[in-house]
Structure formats: C-alpha cells, structure tokens
Write a sequence for this structure.
C-alpha cells in the first residue's frame, strides 16, 4: 500500500482506467447486434494499428496461440521455412514449425544480435525450397529490434512469405504491415495494446491468404478462413473473450485520440530516457545498436545477481521488472516501458533499479542519472523518432 | 436505461460484482509470487468444482479450444472414437476428431434426445477398435442432459476413455468426475462459472494422463503435459488471461462460500420454475424428460417465429435469450438461467417471454404463470435436487 505497484515488464503492462472499467461492464452476448457493432469498430482501429487494409482477426488465446495459428494456417507439413532464431521467441517459432511438421532452416544468432537481411537473402538464394521466413519484430527475450523492413524487401524479391511476430512491437514502434510488405503480422493484447493477456490478433496479406487457402488442414481451433468468414459478419468463429474485447474498444479509442505518431514518439522518448539513465549508472546495454522500443535490457556486471535485483525492486519499491530468460538468467534485467507507462513510472523504475543494484552489491557514483534520463527523454520527445 | 440488461442465455452469463471488480484490478505479472498464489488457490477451487483429485488445467481459449485440446492431446491420428452426436456441440466433437485424423464412429441422435447408454455399450461391443467416447454432459443446442454417469459405467467396463464436454454443465448440475469415472472433463468460463468467456478448464483421470503421454504430438499451443508441468510450479505454459483468472479466484470463493450443494439446489429450482412457467403458458418443452439444468428449451407453436421473439424480448424488455441453432432456428427459444441468475431474473424473463410471445402472434390464456413458476421454484428449493 505504501508504494504503488508499477509493472515495468515487457508484458503484461499496466491498464488504463478506461480499459479496466470497460472490462467490468455488464456481460453481453457475442452473437447480438451490440457486440457486432463493437467488433466492427475495433476492426477499424486494428487495421490502423497494423497499417493494413486487410482484416485483422481477433483470436482468443495468448500470443503464442497466434504464432501457432499463423504457422499451422500458412504452411503444410513437409514445407520448408527459415526461422531467425535470435532469442527465446525465435526458438519458439522453430518449435512450432517443427510441431507442424515443417522442415526448419534455423538461422541461430547470438542472443543480443539482430537479424541480418544479407544472411536471410543468402539463405533464400542457397535453398529455393524455403517458402517462408519467420521472425520477431522485437525479440522480447533480448530487447533487440530486428530490421523487419529490410528483411521484407528480401522476402518479397524471393517470393517467400514473411511472418512477423509483433507481440512486443505492435503499438510500440512503427510496423506498417502493408507498406513494408509483411505477409503475416500478429500480436498479443498485453503489451503495446494496454490490455490484459488473453487476446491475440493476426492479419494476412493477399498473398498469405492465397497460401492459407492451399495449406493442409491444421488446428480446428485456429481456423483462419473460418475466422475470416465470421469477421465479415462482425462475429468470431467461437465465443470470444467478450470483456477483453470491450477493453480493446477503449484501448483503440485511446490510440485514435492520441494518434499513432504521438504514441511512437512517447515510446521512443521513454526508450532513450531509460537507456540514458542506465548508461549514466555506468551499466552496459545488452542491445547496444538494434534496440527495441519499450524494453531496455540492462547487462549486469559480474557479481550482481539479476534474479535477486528484480526481487528486491519488487519487494522494496513495488517496481516489477523482468529478469533474463534461459541463458541470460541473472545476467540481465529487462526494464519494460511499453504501453500505459509514462516518464513518472520510468523515474520510479530507475530509482528502484539503482537502489536495488546497490543492495545487490553493484556500485555507481553517478548522482544525476535521473536528470540525465529525463534530459534524454525530453530531447527525444522534442526531436521525434527516426524512420525505421 | 429504463430496463436493466438481463442475460438469460446459455452463456455468456451475468457477472457478479466481485468478479467485475477483480478484473478491473491492477495488472500483475504471471511469473511472480503473487500470481502463483492465485493459481494455487484457484486450483483447489477447481478441483472441488470438478470433483477430482487430479489437477485442473486452466487454458486461455474458448470452450471449443479445450475440446480441441482434449481430442488432440488424448488420441492419435488413425485411432477410432465414438461421438454421441445429439446436437450442434456433438457435431463439433466429430469435426474436431476428424480434423485430428481420427476415425469417427458417430452416433447421431434426433435433436432433443439424450444419449442411450445401451447404444454406447452396443457400439463398444461391436467395434473393439473404439478407444474413446466423446460426449456432452449438457447439449447446449437442445437443452438435453445426457446420462454421463451411466455412460461412464459402460466406458469403464470396456476400457474406453470417456471425454465429457461439461461446458454448460460444470457448476450447474452435479458432475463429480472421479466418482462417476469420467476420464476427461472440460468446461468454459462463461457459463456456470460466472465469468466472461476466454478461459477453459480441463482435467484428466490417471488413465487419461497415461494415454496423453503416448499420443502423437498434436497442437503446440494445447500441450497438456507442458501445462501440467507448469501447473506443478503454479504457473501456466504460456501467458494466461490474468484478469480472467483474477475473476476466477472471486468466482470460486463465491462457490466455496455457498457450497456446491446450495448452488445445484438453486439451479435445479430455477430450472423447475422456468419449466413450470413455460408449461403454464401452454408451451411444450423441447427436452421433456432428460433436461439440462440452467437452460430451458421452449418449443414454439407453428406460426410463432423464435428469431423475432428473441429480438422483441431484447429490444422491449432488455431480456436476452437465445434462439435455436441450425435445424432448430426459429423453432425453439433457449432460456438460460445458469450462473449468476436468480428468481427475480427468471420472473423478468418469463414476463418478457410471454409478452414477446403475444406480440409474435402466440396466444396464452393463463393469468397465473408467474405464480406457478414461483411455486415450482419454491417447492424444488425446499425438496432439493434428485440424484443424477
């Protein structure tokens, strides 16, 4: 009670009041006119968010469910795909593709490194059997932002389908699906969209819809054509997560009111602010060059245990950050600042980080890291974000 | 505004205030201690609700997702299952099983009829290849309650696995999984559990877990063994629908406070009350003998259009009921009275039904149908529910 709970993780992210109250409304029936009007409204908002003229399917599942739906719905057993494996979620694409019976040409990269479009081009040239490329936009396990736009240029020229997991990128940094030539873009509800987890969204390009029509039947529950046919009648194939969609309506209204540009600008400024603060403390950033927006991975010096640091920050300050996963466990702290997070949360997060760092044996002599973080934030807000 | 919204459909059902407020709480992180404690608490409540000593897996999906998870997780392509097909959801089991590559021995019944344990026994004796029987407990499309307990006796003696879709039965009428010998029981969140849709729950008997271990890999997203391993650590395999699980905690606390017996007693009394009211109006009940609790299917006389009746009741009275599906479209009205619905809602529903019936050309001379409904309700509440 003394400290507020501050969720600075790369998902789930804090909920705006409008979303909370919408979710507490009277339950409505999902086949009646009132709910159809909601589905019609959110469809427009989702298209704007995805930067696409294609329908965006709402699915009742976690983000992983949408990854599974994409892979199973687009490819048939025996087909070959290239997976950019630059972290835990890249590996997940490989697991899903293998489970679907696909042949996987994995392109494993050291964690912290971004995809290299030239390497993708080389792989596609070397193996003409590859019909699709699967990658993250932002690899949540490392805090790296992949060059989706450049990879899309490569896949387009080779006729391969580009499937992008935008779970921690959509609504955080620009990812205009149609303009860049992404064939399948998917995301979850609990990151940039400022909703609880439980919904996912998926859109396909025309080329991808053609491929989906020819794919061998996959999952019964994840039936892309069935969802599309229902969406045209402003319905979903099966009973959707009605309360989360009520929240989505409010979330998308907030996006519309601010404008996507303003949201990206804020996310960019928070990202530069967080990075400046961490650097002022003398810490290395785990993704120095190709860094995600909305998520900063801070590398810890030898001797400071990241698992404990995250615990201390949560217990003493109510600031919940994420540790490293798998091979990065204990070695990095992932500070989330996506979705409904602002500069005040970032200040609280940096203070909690610094104090917990000291408690865990870290040392920093910097006495103006908060000001330096805010200076970088303000400057970035002023100058705006770079083109991706 | 003048009339309150009353959701008398067989799902989604109205939300208790405790559930609404829980869903509006601060978002929490699903891998942290606080949420693990929630998962541990709801596990105990779910076990009590399912009547099982086995773990009950929470899945982030609709009820159909859990049906898919059960079929894909328990059986391998080429195996044969018997499906009791007594309505739309029986047919759905057949579709799911075929999609999984199973051989389906369908047992189609006229809609409105209950499963016949002797027919199941005959089928299992005639075809020793059948390794599982799939059925609903309550067939939501017709309002029929199947004799699960008797079918379980048959499947047990033949060594076949019994998979029961309890989506509109769990929390509405008794369905003690372990006592009856059900091998797989599943349900959704938006019926008896008084939650929005978006969660599903699934439990397996020991025998079913053994079978699951041997089944060919199915869906990546619906990974029963993976969910079980995580549940032992009070986690879920993928990011769960956190806000719905916060609501579940409150819903299960309400169940615990009242006791399951009291809940069943109320559901039984509402069911007899609704049936008595409809009969007093001179209407036939679509499931005269083996009727579901929590859902009353009313057959309409020739010339009264059920689609219009449902529309009129919603528009003029704010009472939302469900029409018939597929072959029953326009011919029946399904009055839901499951979950967070009480005698006052039933009275409102019957009044709205009667007036809408008259507007749609129906005729009834009864002037005490509300009193007769309440008399039946009070009597049933007094006497308690029969053993199933």
């Amino acid at each position: 009670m003394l400290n507020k709970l501050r969720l600075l993780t790369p998902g789930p992210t804090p909920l705006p009041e409008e979303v909370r109250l919408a979710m507490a409304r009277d339950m409505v029936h999902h086949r009646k006119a009132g709910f159809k009007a909601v589905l019609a409204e959110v469809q427009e908002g989702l298209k704007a968010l995805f930067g696409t003229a294609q329908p965006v399917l709402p699915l009742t599942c976690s983000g992983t469910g949408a990854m599974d739906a994409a892979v199973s719905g687009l490819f048939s057993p025996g087909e070959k795909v290239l997976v950019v494996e630059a972290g835990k979620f890249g590996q997940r694409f490989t697991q899903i593709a293998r489970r679907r019976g696909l042949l996987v040409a994995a392109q494993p990269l050291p964690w912290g490194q971004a995809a290299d479009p030239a390497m993708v081009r080389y792989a596609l040239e070397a193996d003409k059997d590859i019909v699709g490329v699967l990658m993250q936009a932002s690899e949540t396990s490392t805090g790296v932002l992949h060059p989706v736009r450049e990879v899309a240029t490569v896949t387009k020229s080779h006729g391969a389908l580009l499937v992008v997991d935008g779970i921690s990128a959509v609504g955080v940094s620009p990812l205009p699906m149609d303009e860049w030539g992404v064939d399948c873009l998917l995301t979850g509800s609990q990151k940039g969209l400022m909703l609880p987890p439980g919904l996912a969204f998926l859109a396909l390009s025309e080329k991808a819809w053609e491929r989906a029509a020819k794919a061998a039947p996959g999952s019964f529950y994840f039936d892309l054509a069935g969802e599309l046919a229902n969406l045209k009648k402003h319905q979903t194939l099966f009973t959707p997560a009605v309360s989360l969609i009520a929240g989505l309506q409010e979330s998308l209204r907030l996006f519309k009111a601010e404008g996507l540009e303003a949201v990206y600008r804020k996310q960019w400024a928070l990202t530069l602010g967080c990075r400046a603060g961490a650097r002022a403390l003398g810490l290395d950033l785990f993704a120095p060059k190709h860094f995600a927006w909305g998520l900063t991975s801070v590398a810890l010096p030898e001797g400071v245990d990241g698992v404990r640091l995250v615990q201390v920050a949560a217990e003493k300050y109510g600031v919940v950050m994420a540790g490293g996963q798998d091979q990065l466990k204990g070695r990095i702290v992932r500070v989330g600042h996506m979705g409904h997070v602002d500069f005040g949360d970032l200040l609280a997060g940096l203070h909690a980080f610094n104090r917990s760092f000291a408690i865990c044996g870290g040392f920093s002599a910097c006495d103006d890291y908060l000001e330096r973080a805010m200076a970088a934030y303000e400057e970035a807000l002023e100058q705006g974000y770079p083109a991706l």
Observations:
- Chain A has a mean pLDDT of 97.
